[in-house]
Fold these 2 entries.
Entry 1:
Amino acid sequence: MSTSTGSPLSTLREMGARRIGLYLVLLAGIVFYLIPVETAVATMFKTQQAFTATAPYVPALGEGFSVSSAIRAWETLRPGLVDSMLMAIPATILSALFGSLAAYGLTTIDWRGQVAVVVLIIAGIFIPYQAVLVPLTTFWFQIWPGLVTGFVNTVFGFVTGGNWAYPRSGNVQLIQLTITHAAYGIPICTLLFRSYYQAISDEMIEAARLDGATAFSIYKNIIFPLSLPMFAVTLIYQFTQVYNDLLFALVLLNDPNTQVATQRLVRLTGGVQQDFTLTMAGAVIAALPTLLVYIFFGEQFAKGVAE
Amino acid sequence: MREILTRLRTAGARLRSAARRTAPTDDKVATDGGTAVGERRRTALRDRLPVEWELVESSPFWLPPVVLAGFFVYGAIFWNAIISLTDWEGLSLSGADYSDLDVEMYARLLGDGAFWQATQNTIVLLVVFTLLCLVVGLLAAILIDQQIRFENTFRTIYLLPMSLSFVVTATMWAWMYNARNGVINTFLRLLNLEGLLVTLLKPEAINATVLQWLSWNTTALPAVIFALLWQFSGYAMVVFLAGLRAIPTEHYEAARVDGASTVRMYMRVIVPQLRASAVSASVVLMVFALKAFDFIFALRGDQPGANLDILATMMYREAFTGGNEWAYGSAIAIVLFVLALLIIAPYLYSEYRRGEL
């Protein structure tokens, strides 16, 4: 297609009717995939008058433009965004690190029977989380505090006098949620790293082995530096998964002062009288972290998804 | 039998270590004696192990993550299965009585109309959503694969909804489907189609002049499926696009030389080669459909009504709200788990048979 010369019109003529039809369909696709997001952004910046007077997808300018809903939504969601980050970033890093180590031990080092472990790990990706919710709740609210309290009071009894109690604050619940997410993220991270490690050539590792390198030094000096691009993919993908989750937070965080962004958004939309300028502002603000990650690292996200 | 095998193995190991000790170590002693002795001792130790040395050597890497994930995934599922056999309910989290196990909760499920309604909704959602996603995703992938300009932009935008949280998309679609002035109804009004659709879709005994997508039993589930299609068809597109790119260009050229039209070429030559992509995409999509809890919960809370109740929402409602029917909720969770297993077990088995794991 010669585009360097000639007017846009002649370029169009060169393309022919089929080509134009193709691009029109593709543009319709863009409208389809973007209109809910565009409508949300248009709606969040409207006054109540403009909201009732204009079509939902038409942005309001001048008189009808207002940031008051956006500010209200931001104030409601801000603590949730902080808690989400405090939870999602460590959980993502832990999952990725564990996933990389597991994939190394299950791929690069070859031993009989490892496929059985791999099958168990991969099946763990597809578990509906409802199947673990009740034990998870009992574990984090009953068993674990009981164990830790008993341990501390027995071992450090001379300090605590047996009166130490497991702290049940919102922050502790946030740490518990972080560990939970880290654990359930291991299977998918292992799978992502495993398919990557399968493609690394054996020769280099064999050579290192003959030179007497230990398994750990092979990981540290060869595998880990080689897997940095895959760490980017895994971190990006897993961050969006953890940040976007609602179910685990719903069950494991019951302190109204410590709630993640998705939880706060549900509370914002749960009212009887729906104020759509406010809920749309909430939706857009809650979506911002993953949206930004997607815009800047879309390539890595697509790779993580395609596995 | 077993004894013979172990004996054979030890004999083999002894032979191997003997061979290793003679030939290469002799060389090494000549060059530097010190390490060779340590080497010999280590090799001897390795050969006396009951399992492969690689298993031992690699375990510090995979064992901690596998134990952690295994505890939370399989330990919890096993425990959940036990809980589903008790009669545990009520506010106290320590109240499960494990001495009296029976299948009472499963019997209760069979007689529960809400359970059958939720199962039906779950399966309809699963099947219709997955098929539609595959069709839309395949069409989008074929269109994008036509050597177009700005390919990356198109792909990025089509996949964008998938990066959003279910909670965010549910909030957005609640507004899209709003009866009075949501986008869908505004468009239909522009096209003069609203009146027609109201008469077509309106459930009996309801008097309405506007389409209430999410409340009517005729439209609620299709509306949710459409929103989920919007969110995940981009995923199917990415998977199919990778499949299309893996097909050698000669196949296209051969079909072209044979004079096949574009449509025929795709139907006869290209699409049949995308079977593997379609299978792996549908497994993931079905699992997403089973997890659609977040979407429906954000849309309708824990009481979505019979139209939208799926097993995931029913489980949460029974176990975590109202009377905290832990055992009953666990039984529903086990049904959900078995459904997921029915989908993934054949898939993993076929992957294993093809040596893809």
Entry 2:
Amino acid sequence: MPVDLSPDATEAEAYAAADAWVREHLPADVLKAALGAEWPEVAAFVADPERSTPWFAALGDAGLSSPTWPCEHGGLGLSAASAGAVTEAVTQYRVGRTMADFVGLALAGPTIIAHGTAAQKERFLGPLARGEHRWCQLFSEPGAGSDLAGLSTRAEQQADGTWVVNGQKVWSSFAHLSDFGLLMARTDPSLPKHRGITYFLVDMTTPGVEARPLRQMTGHAEFNEVFLTEVELPADAVLGELNGGWAVAITTLMQERNGLTGRPAVGDGKADELLRRAHGNGSLEEPVLRDRLLRMLVEERALQMTTLRAYAEAGRGAAGAEGSVRKLVNAQLEEEAGALAAEVDPLTALSWPAGGAVPAPVEEFLAMKTTSIAGGTSEIQRNIIAERLLGLPKDPDPEKDKPFSERPRTS
Amino acid sequence: MTGETGATASEPAGADDLVEFAWTDEHADLRQAVRRLMATRAPLDRARAVADSGERHDADLWRTMAEQLGLQGLAVPEEHGGFGGTLVDVALVAEEMGTVLHGGPFLPTAVLAPAVLVPLAEHDGEAAALLGRIAAGATTVAVAVAEGRHAWAPGLVTTRATGAPGSERLTGRKDLVLDGADADEVLVLATTDSGPAWFRLDTTDGPRRERCATLDLTRPAATLHLDDVPARRLGGPDTDGAAVADRAALVASVVLAAEQVGGAAEVVRRTAEYVTTRRQFGRPVGSFQGVKHRLADAAVRAEMARSAAYWAAFQRPGTDDFELGALVARSHCSEAFLQTAKDGIQLHGGIGFTWEHDMHLFLRRARLDATLLGDAAAARERLLAHALPDLAPSATEVA
């Protein structure tokens, strides 16, 4: 049952409705813990599937996990700004869906809404909103990173209309835990590389799909290489047009750039947290470090203001090359935050009790290069900004207009 | 900060209802009108011609600005004969002027002076009358705060006021006074036994106004030598002159930030045009990533600067958010414009290093703007109190 909220609700109305709903429906012990800022207890609730599964289902039924989606597909049809207020209301209790659901809620959902058939929307959107399905991206390949359109995973259509897929994907976050995947595969190698790709929705339990977790430099294993061997897909696994997968992928990629800079609000952020730590351990008195922290504060606030402006000026759910601006700045900020975390507290970042939890500055330092590579490197974002916002010439690509099958093979 | 500084030139009626980035048709109309006026009467060539000839400004344009668009009265409240525009309105005008490096008396007369005079006018008919003359385009006003190495540090002013109320005399030296050699009126911040206060200089009697050579060729400035010269104190007996100066600097920071946005965006636009047409190695230089990426970074800085300047302009003066916005804008926009101006010259290569090319005019303006109201590092230091409100209050005080 969706919360009673008009699609034209203001931010304040949306916030109030979401806040009231959470207070009414969140199990009493968890609400009490959240109100008392006892966050480990709240985190235990979210991590316990027995308890969090019904909670996420209820949250989804209320429309609060997918507030921008159309009402007929389990959303609330809200503007980006009002949807941001809903998300803010839920996240203040730290009981919203986790980053492991980012691909599903932020990428798969909007891409299916934009390009899916009625049957695909019916089948996937409800369960996505309710947290029943986890999704991953099957885009990058060992031979196709920044040059994503150079992918060579092959999908061949059979006489009965079904597809057989062979290839290898990489950097697929949470693929080993996912129920469905967003797959880009080559369906016509006689066409130039951007024009012979089709976009598929893949059931990850299909025989021949094998996800192998890769250990990252952080020590965690969130992303995977995924092997696709004689994977049979039904005809209705195609999302969008045959050989029209690049346009569908652009929808996904723009959502990704747009979604990474957080909710549209100006306030407390990573720089504030680092300033508090520096104040706490006395390192704030060091003038050079102090100014670097304050410089980061300025840039983070300016990015928040830019996100707010993007939402205000773009209206409902629009995303464009402007998202690349924010993604690039966000990547620079995360890198600086990771570097500063280690400088504010260098000894904690360098050694800690064996067997104990890894301290935050270590995690932050090691994760600092995540965003500048994931979702399109900062170099690719600069190309997009230069070409689309400034109108500079496109990077030369000798393979662009040739049939994919005629490209020189390097490996 | 005292209660007396509660109103500013730019505080709009119903400001509680301001929503960030809620652009209106009136905003668009104002921007178009100023853009058209600048394009026809004050293009960048004109700024250079005025500077080359040593002219102070284009007096005909000044009259047109007052008579046709009322720009001098935009920051003056209606009760004092102005148009009572919002800070967003004034920022839009400044941005458009920034793209053509328009200089002359506009910033000191129509931005700095109203920001100082509006709180003073609450207790002082003379200040109110001056506001009316500014709004009518009938007078020009210089604002003298800077001394020595301090651009805008109200608490460190050493120019001294002596004598009985109503017949004070000022002694000291004021530097970097924009339009200081020619303005009809000069407002001076000086110390008294009860702290800093604002004075209106008697320009007919005594002050030596030394016209200076300036790095920014488009904004004339002077040093004022005040040797026991007559002046009249403005405001009420309890007016905290330092607080008025501080608040004025925050308001003006937002306007100046918008000017910096205009300058930075124009450098990006001109440079993008140049690198698309200039060819080397058989292709446009703008197709090389070394060039593309530097310019992309500049465009990103300019976009962020625009967000920061206008987010601040949409806040209500006097609030914490307003101060935060003004300080973020001063820090980010100052450095963004300066870096972008440097990159613009770099990407133009040798031609960008010539006197005839316009790029250095932007660099010169960027350097002035980055200092005029206090530098970026000082703004950041004040932001500490916003991130750590529990910290000792001394962090928020102006030096």
